[in-house]
Design a protein that fits this description.
Helix 14 crosses helix 15. The longest helix is centred in the first third of the chain and has 17 residues. The protein has 16 helices and 14 strands. Helix content is 43%, strand content 18%. The chain has 406 residues and is α/β, with parallel strands linked by helices. It has two domains: 151 residues, Rossmann fold; 212 residues, Rossmann fold. The strands form four sheets. The protein has a six-stranded mixed beta sheet, with helices on both faces. A four-stranded parallel beta sheet has the order 7-6-5-8, sandwiched between helices. A two-stranded antiparallel ribbon has the order 1-2.
Length: 406
């Protein structure tokens, strides 16, 4: 049975200043330091509080629908001709993605801190929907920032957020995607810092967000570890998860970091190809720098300006990555690879036709690499792919690519 100890043990990273090796930290204006100090103190207190954790675990079980199952994708495995592919089914969660794990946690924390106004930013819309859902349940006001481009390609999720009572604010600056939505949310937080809680949806941003979001999502890896031991009596040989900011990947990876026989692969968006410059692969093709309050790998030009990114999946279309991933890359504990748009689209069709599961385009990047990896491994080995979200939200995008109008 989970308890407060699940959220307060095994914490070699980050250090007391929020650094994962050379990465992380809090690179923000003085205006935000008080709010971050307040959040650090609150998270440090409540993660040790048994009653708070009991409420969190109750909501994860009875509202989110945890534990999500692991599923042996036998037909997909047979088509690849190598290792057995298993899927961690985060797409079966309430609201359809892993994002709800973190928003349930941050929503409860905001309640404990007496913050009734909630702001968030979203790319694919799944984090926005999850935040709006929790706000509706906890009677909190909700404002979601979203790039104009993402609003157009994720219209279903925009409508869902509005039905839930959230105000969706369109961001028209820059590339009009997730990076710019995050900038606007930061500006809102600085302006309304007394009564507002900022629910960041990924393992990026200033300390303590990378640690806190990881901890709320680590339920994915704890469950997967236990489920694989129960069903196969051994751990998987490899973990695969997509990486934009990196929240679903850190949620899966974290409980396995000490299991050095288990290889870990993070899959970034190669977009139209790494050699075209039209991608979102910060770890595969970027370099260290500071973005949105933390030091990490990012994509910039020779003048240090953040460059525009591209991915068919809105949730991976981000020019940075969580600092713990940067640390895992440099330490060699995890490997980071890239899958292009067409490979992700092919994987979407393969999983849908062979297993009857329509994955989110973000998750399809992990499925595509999991298929490649499995083909190189023995049939007695296992690749566990985190299916971070379902693809209902991407139906219009998929139809548009095929030249269809719904």
């Amino acid at each position: 049975m989970p308890g407060a100890s699940d959220y307060d043990i095994g914490r070699p990273q980050p250090d007391a200043t929020g650094h994962f090796g050379d990465y992380g930290g809090s690179y923000v204006s003085e205006t935000l330091m008080h709010a971050l100090d307040e959040l650090r103190e609150a998270w440090s207190r409540w993660r040790k509080d048994d009653e708070f954790i009991r409420r969190l675990d109750h909501d994860l079980a009875h509202y989110v629908g945890r534990p999500s199952p692991v599923y042996h994708a036998e037909r997909l495995s047979a088509a690849c001709g190598g290792a057995q592919i298993w899927l961690k089914r985060e797409d079966l969660n309430h609201t359809g993605a892993h994002k709800i794990n973190n928003t349930v946690g941050q929503g409860l924390l905001a309640k404990q801190m007496g913050k009734r106004r909630i702001i968030a930013e979203t790319g694919a819309g799944q984090h926005g929907v999850a935040t709006a859902t929790v706000c509706a349940r906890l009677d909190q006001d909700c404002v979601v920032y979203m790039g104009e481009t993402d609003i157009k390609r994720q219209s279903i999720n925009v409508f869902r957020m509005k039905l839930l009572g959230a105000e969706v604010r369109s961001v028209t600056s820059g590339s009009k995607t997730l990076k710019d939505a995050l900038n606007e949310a930061m500006r809102d937080w600085v302006t309304n810092i007394d009564d507002t809680f900022y629910v960041i949806g990924t393992v990026a941003g200033p300390h303590p967000y990378p640690e806190m979001v990881r901890d709320f999502n680590a339920v994915v890896g704890r469950e997967a570890r236990r489920q694989m031991l129960e069903q196969r009596e051994t751990l998987p040989d490899a973990l695969v998860a997509c990486v934009g900011g990196g929240s679903n990947a850190m949620g899966l990876f974290h409980p396995f970091i000490g299991d050095t026989d288990v290889k870990m692969y993070g899959v970034e968006a190669a977009g139209n190809g790494l050699d075209t410059g039209e991608h979102a692969a910060s770890l595969c093709a970027g370099r260290p720098g500071v973005l949105h309050g933390c030091r990490t790998y990012l994509l910039d030009d020779d003048a240090g300006q953040i460059v525009h990114t591209h991915s068919v999946s809105a949730g991976l279309d981000y020019p940075g990555v969580g600092p713990e991933h940067a640390w895992l890359k440099d330490s060699g504990r995890a490997q980071y690879v890239a899958i292009n748009d067409q490979e992700a689209l092919d994987a979407t069709q393969a999983l849908t036709r062979l297993e009857g599961i329509l994955p989110a385009l973000e998750s399809a990047h992990a499925v595509a690499y999991g298929m490649k990896l499995a083909a190189e491994m023995r049939p007695d080995q296992v690749v566990l792919v985190n299916l971070s979200g379902r693809g209902d939200k991407d139906v219009e995008t998929l139809a548009g690519i095929k030249g269809l109008s719904l």
